Amino acid sequence: MTDVPQTYDETGAVVHCQLFYVNDSQQAQIESLQSLIAEHKLPIVLETELSTEKLTQKRRQQLSQTSSQPILLLDEKDKLSWISDGLSVSPEWDKLQRRVVSAGRKSELLLQAAKITADSHVIDATAGFGHDSLILGSTGAQVIMLEQQPLMALLLLAEQERMSALPNWQKLMSRLHITNADALSYFTETGSVENKQSTIDVVYLDPMFPEDSYQDSKTGKGAKVGKHMQALHQLACPPTLEEERQLLNSAKAIVSRSAQGQGRVVVKRPQFAPLLAEQPASESWHNEAVRFDGYFV
Ligand SMILES: C[S@@+](CC[C@H](N)C(=O)[O-])C[C@H]1O[C@@H](n2cnc3c(N)ncnc32)[C@H](O)[C@@H]1O
Predict the structure, then answer these.
(1) CATH assignment, 93-296
(2) Whose CA is nearest to atom 5 of ligand 1?
(3) 207: CA distance to ligand 1 center in Å?
(4) Which residue's CA is minimally distant from atom 27 of ligand 1?
(5) Which one of 4, 146, 158, 269 counts the least CB within 10 Å of its CB?
(6) Residue 194 pLDDT grade (very low, low, confident, very high; cuts 50, 70, 90)
(7) Which residues line ligand 1 (CB under 6 A)?
């Protein structure tokens, strides 16, 4: 096992992760992960270990049950995953190829709600696995992706690097700007910098919500929780009502200075979930699983 120098964020909190890799030829990939951690000042320490046995589903389950620290896996295709509760999760942006190519079509409710163009500047303030950021970025817009959890930020940065090697994805990758930050702190900072604030046209919010709000409690209708969301529930909590208010209000303040004069905040909720911060939306779009609430400013 190799220990690497520690890095710290302003709060001093450090996440120690165990990184399993599967063959000796992956040193370059490990170094590249270390460079991402250093360059983006992620408070992460990687403890690397060559896995001599096959990481079967059973072994992953065992590892996640016995280890007190997050477990990462660099597989034989150099894809970085997080092993959470025996499940292996990663952004897997390549799986969104069909949606990315056809984005802009009516089927993407998110794009109907966000109404962005190639000239737009968007903040996805709760990036998660970055799936919605990809859809937003597929329009040609620039997307700042904020993610508060260092582990998630590392998964995003590693995925961006992996996908940037594929010629068809390079342009889209260059429009995504990943930052490990809490959205509220970022908004406060951005709000105090004159020119920066005028460039944001849309803020997109998809905060965590209680696990039981995905389905209607009476009818049982609604979405099942997918493995990506299950994993995220291990890391992040839903905001309190007061935090929801702060998030929505500061997002509105940011887009109110949109250079295009058409600022809006778009909030994603499970179809039957209550409104964010109990604030009525200007317009909503929904299907049988999700709802997008638009706040026009
Ligand atoms: C529901 S997930 C978002 C999923 C995302 N839309 C996607 O397509 O993968 C919420 C994510 O937002 C992050 N998050 C929640 N509150 C945040 C905040 N205040 N600032 C930055 N990130 C936040 C959580 O850590 C989590 O990764």
Answers:
(1) 3.40.50.150
(2) 128
(3) 5
(4) 128
(5) 4
(6) low
(7) 125-126, 128-132, 146-149, 152, 182-184, 206-208, 232, 236
DSSP E strands: which ranges in the chain?
15-21, 44-50, 71-74, 80-84, 87-89, 121-124, 142-147, 176-180, 202-205, 264-270, 283-286, 290-296
For residue range 102-147, what is the model confidence (pLDDT) as tens digits? 866 667 999 999 999 999 999 999 999 999 999 999 999 999 999 9
Tokens of 244: 């929801």
Cα 137 to Cα 141: distance, rounded to the nearest angstrom: 5
Strands 80-84 and 71-74: antiparallel
State the first-to-last Cα distance of the chain, in angstroms, to the nearest integer: 53
Paired strand residues for 20: 49, 73
For ligand 1, the distance from its centroid to the CA atom of residue 146, given in whole angstroms, is 8
* Domain residue extents for the chain: 15-89, 93-296
The CATH number of the structural domain formed by 15-89 is 3.40.50.800
Whether 137 and 143 have beta carbons less than 8 Å apart is answered as yes
How many whole angstroms from 272 Cα to the centroid of ligand 1?
Answer: 19
